[in-house]
Design goal:
alpha/beta, Rossmann fold, ten-stranded mixed beta sheet, 13 helices, 10 strands, 16% strand, binds S-adenosylmethionine
Length: 373
């Protein structure tokens, strides 16, 4: 049985080229969904040189990419919407961001004023390439990164002046800082207490509502390293003498799970043959086990949905009709089987159970319709 994976597994012994390949593969899947009309993203090709020459993904992969992208976009937009009445901008931290374009898509839309700071973290070889793409004047990405908000950046080691604002290029070109956008190189498996205070410097505020995005990254790490990482953010956003009222902390994870059934075993065997392991999937044999990732760190709430359930119940019927008309999808059973093994999990840690953040989460279409009547 050939099982299509919706994102590339990475060998345990990761090399620089592998990191690049992970980031590029995830972005190529997105580009394929964009080229076939599932998604709209006018920034993706700027991060993928010669991308138009790449082969398109199968209808199954395009559908999966669409469902996950829509669901995470909604969670992000809802987070930004909830922060509006609070009168506070949000911070978003994307860990293992790869070639993601979410920052630029948000800055190009109605939510831009709600973005106080946006951080992208990845291995240094990945951030170096992304920084080069962003700084390339032909990419058009600089405009969005720098020209919104004229707050100045601090202590320039290596400052470049653009026509619109100041860009701080740091750590030999692997880091970028602007008024709102920060690109930071790191290995997330290293102790966050050692690397994060220096990396985030004073750019990350403990008082603003903050959303962490983990899209296809924790599965590559040991469960222990993932826990330490999440706990660092929990501690940072906990009340202290310096921060009596910390911001709400939200977290979204998109990943495979439940790999102990026959589908999972076939997939794991295929991966093992390529010397690949997914240590982060082990503690999560079932959908019910996924929210424990947050709840064990004291999050107020946590919930997980499979992509299959999201496709069936959380996407408007008109959208489903539109995407099903784009390409012939013969293998509906296979699609369902694959989508059942990928989930989006979200959790929130708010200061009280009457906080508006408790409302945060995907809502089924039926409930959305009932709310509009
Ligand atoms: C499959 S890609 C996903 C990229 C992006 N989140 C997306 O969904 O398009 C996984 C990303 O996580 C990054 N990554 C994996 N392990 C990491 C680690 N230990 N430290 C930093 N980045 C890591 C990879 O370099 C890669 O860019």
């Amino acid at each position: 049985m050939i099982i299509e994976s919706m994102y590339p597994p990475a060998p345990a012994n990761r090399s620089e080229r592998v990191h690049d390949a992970d980031a590029a593969n995830a972005a190529l899947a997105r580009l394929s969904a964009v080229r076939k009309g599932y998604l709209t993203d006018r920034f993706i090709s700027s991060l993928l040189p010669r991308a138009q020459l790449q082969p398109l993904r199968s209808p199954l992969i395009n559908t999966g990419t669409y469902v996950r992208s829509e669901a995470i976009d909604r969670l992000v937009e809802q987070w930004l919407e909830l922060s509006k009445p609070e009168g506070q901008p949000c911070q978003i931290v994307s860990l293992g961001a790869g070639s993601d374009t979410r920052f630029w898509r948000l800055m190009d839309g109605p939510w831009k004023e709600q973005i106080g700071a946006y951080f992208e973290l990845d291995f240094p070889d990945v951030t170096l390439k992304k920084a080069m793409a962003i700084r390339n004047p032909r990419s058009g990405l600089q405009h969005y990164s720098w020209s919104f908000g004229a707050r100045s950046v601090r202590s320039p080691n290596d400052v470049r002046i653009t026509t619109s604002a100041i860009i701080l290029v740091d750590l030999g070109g692997q880091a970028l800082h602007s008024s709102r956008y920060h690109l930071l190189p790191c290995d997330l498996r290293n102790p966050p207490g050692d690397i994060f205070p220096g990396l985030f410097k004073e750019y990350l505020s403990p008082t603003l509502p903050t959303l962490l995005l983990f899209e296809c990254v924790l599965v590559y790490m040991s469960p222990e390293a993932s826990s330490i990482l999440i706990q660092w953010f929990v501690d940072f956003f906990s009340p202290s003498t310096h921060t009596p009222s910390p911001g709400a902390l939200g977290c979204t994870v998109y990943e495979m799970f439940g790999l102990e059934d026959s589908f999972g075993q076939v997939m794991m065997n295929n991966l093992r043959a390529r010397n690949v392991s997914l240590p982060g999937a082990k503690p999560y044999p079932s959908l019910e086990s996924l929210p424990s990732r947050f709840l064990k760190h004291g999050f107020t709430s946590g919930k997980a949905l499979t992509l299959r359930n999201i496709r069936s119940n959380y996407i408007e019927p008109s959208e489903l009709e539109r995407i099903s008309s784009l390409e012939m999808l013969d293998e509906v059973e296979e699609l369902n089987l694959v989508l059942e093994h990928y989930a989006i999990t979200w959790g929130v840690k708010a200061s009280s159970s009457i906080s508006p953040w408790i409302e945060w989460g995907l809502r089924p279409v039926k409930q959305q319709l009932a709310d509009t009547v």
